[in-house]
Amino acid sequence: MTEHPRTAPSGSEKSLAAAINAERVTKVFGSGKDKVIALAEVTVAIQQNEFFTLLGPSGCGKTTLLRLIAGFDHPTDGVIMLHGRDISHLPPYQRSVNTVFQSYALFPHMTVAQNISFGLEMLGKSKDHIKKTVGDMLALVKMAELRDRRTDQISGGQQQRVALARALAPQPEVLLLDEPLAALDYKLRKEMQIELKRLQHETGITFIFVTHDQEEALTMSDRVAVMNAGRILQIGTPRQIYNHPVERFVADFIGSTNFLAAKVLASEGRSARLKLSSGKEVKVELPEGMVPADRVTAVVRPEYAQLFAKDQNNSDLRGVLENIVYFGTDTHYHIRLPDETRFVIRRQNRLEDTETFDVGQTVDIAFKPNSVQVLRD
Amino acid sequence: MPQNKAIMSNLEEEARRRSTRRSWLLSTPALLVLFCAASGPLLIVLVYSFLTSGEYGGVVWEFSTDAWFNVVFLRDIFDDTLGLADAHLRILWRSVKLSFFTTATTLAIGFPTAYFIATRPRTTRNIWLFLITIPFWTNLLIRTFAILEMIRNQGLINMVLLNLEIIDSPIRMIFTDFAIMVGMTYVYLPLMVLPLYASMERLDFNLVEAAYDLYASRSKVLRRVIIPLVKPGIIAGSILVFIPSLGAFVTPRVLGGGKKMMLGNLIELQFGAGRNWPLGAALSITLLSIVMIALLVYVRTIQKDSDGLR
Amino acid sequence: MTPGTKKRKPFSLKKQPGFGFIAIACFVMLYAPILILIVYSFNLGENIAVWEGFSLQWYVSAWHNEAVQDAALRSLTLALQASIYATVLATMAALGTTRTRPFSGLTAIYVMINQPLMVPEIVTAVALLTVFAIIKTATGIQGMIYLVAAHTAFCIPFAYLPIRARLEGMDLMLETAAADLYAAPWKTFQRITLPLLWPGIIAGAMLAFVISLDDVVITEFVKSSGQETLPTYMLGQLRRIITPEINAISAVLVSLSIIVVGLFFVIDKKFGK
User: What gap in Å lies between CA B38 and CA C158, rounded to an integer?
Assistant: First the structure.
């Protein structure tokens, strides 16, 4: 029958070979006028024991990529490798990859325990092994008391945990999670996020997580790949993605940011000196692979800028305060710059704050040079 | 890489071809049985209608259009004049007439009934559905027989009326067109109610509420809102009643006796005592054609409806 | 709905005048003849309008009537065979025509499967009579096989529809999940598809059984002499003297229908969705 397809190369090689290697993967649906390019030459290497997130808006291709890794569809072009082995065209039941579906897809005619044991049964494991593993899994997701319940009689959160246990039981090399927390309410989602992190650490299995929720991506992942329109725009740690976005889309999609037009005065290798529209000069490091240009766009996060009353000599920008929005924990200041663009500053409210500002007041903005990130554009 | 692309799209094609092949493989046994014992024989009937009638039934394999001719016309055997086949036309007319009336009556009775069921609370609705479904699954013959027992000369109605001395002698109800119509209405009523119910169950009563809000009276709401919205159900039910009525055989046989024949009985006659298989075949094809036309009208109306509503 | 004042009844959104009355009258009219039939099967006397006392004699005489026994047995074996064959074939056809990518022959297949529903029974009966006559003279084969084939054929669409409905309502993801969990296609079918499809298959089989049992027209045409089923026997009896034996047989058949329909509703409720 089906053997457990875990034919990884030898130990040391395995630790070097990425868990999943997608090379120039392309997926095209339909043809002619109805052609849809879901993925365009996507290349990414996901490491062993990594919590890796595919982040992007609906239709960006993240789910398609997941399906290709799982085996529910075949790439039109390109290669997908699992620990060095080409699995691009293997059927899903021959890949050591398991999926947690967005709708959970629990088998309604089976109990919780039977759902969890299903993969193991298909692999032909011994009854003892199955019994022990199911017990372990139930303990892992804390569902032991519900083991004989039918799956249509448990709550959404419980179903989600059963789906997890079911996918983890056969000890796959990679676990795929397709927006598994989307159907849960806020509190439950927060709890499950912590749970998932813990599970990944305990099992050591590579998790590939798909979501459109950037907060989720930032809090849970070791690394994030931001996708849009069938392409991967940037891969990095949450901190890298947040502080150093290199694409306009990434800067805009993750958190909110301020866009500043700037002119390049001089550049040497990766270093460059920019002149911002307000006149202030600043020294920055250009992102990799950037085509040299005269005009660039720079971004500054709202929380990295500071607000002063007028007459600060080392202000970077000057503008008129248009709007003050109070959020409880923060206050947002919306400032209109001379070139009619908006700049938003986010300031955490502290009890000892005494300075007040009024709408219509001219204010000064200051930010550190290393908070300026140039976009690759 | 371009070569890979060609291989990849070939794999897609392969998958699609395999899926189609699988579909055919799975469907073929059923199709085979159906072809041999349902669809195929229809072609034979068509062929038979163009053959010559055999002496003792059956056919002689000689081409002839006599059968088709005899559907409508009659050649007098004595003086060879051409006339209309009165009996045939009368039977044809009776079939169409009775089918229309049956459809109308079942609609008149079935519409309020279906509405009633559809407006019951969810808990009791299943019981009503259960009750309306049972006659549907009861043998046609038994139901016809039940009507026979009611309306024949020594049947229940007459006996009760006689005993109560309301009448002197039994009212002649059996073996009339009326009897056949009562029988067919009784037998086909569930066939009208069920599709009507299906349509009404989907009725969005918010629309009705909106109509009342806009000063419509109950009858106006019925005419202008409810009926148009359940039109698909009305048409489906009408088709489901009209078609079997047209080809009814058992009910006219039992309730009409030998005298009041419908198309089904006429056809049967040709294969029995009438010994004119080609004529029977021609009549069958005629019946089939009328049915096909009715179905086409139905499909066309449904398409137009769904286009209009979009 | 506007809330009612103390004395006025609240406005009923769904009420239409007279509809309730007609509906109830309809139900009464539908059941009265059958119920009367059944009641008089227990009548001691022969005359339908004269109640002479309670008696099971007609049931007994029907039970011992050899012709009835023969017909009943034949009806049951025929229905059993036809429903089993039809259900198997319909299941395969449903699997082949549901949830697949559309291909050119699909509509044609669908039409052919449902064709017995669209053609008046008498036409099918005539068609089968002619074809079987040819085959009989050509091959000399006699026996029940013609009836079985005919019944199987017109039972297929009745078995097909509930199975297809159930298949379409099934979550596609479940089979994908099974494949993800190392189940090869056959195993997926065996462990996931089939168990979930089972209520639909049962429903289809029951429907086919009842349809076969009830058939009059096609059986009447296709049968050779001596091959009576219960309905054809009853039809024949209607030409002669009608004894309440017919009532008794009818009562039994009606009870059978009630049981089957009841089972159908129970299954639907239990496994629906």
Answer: 14
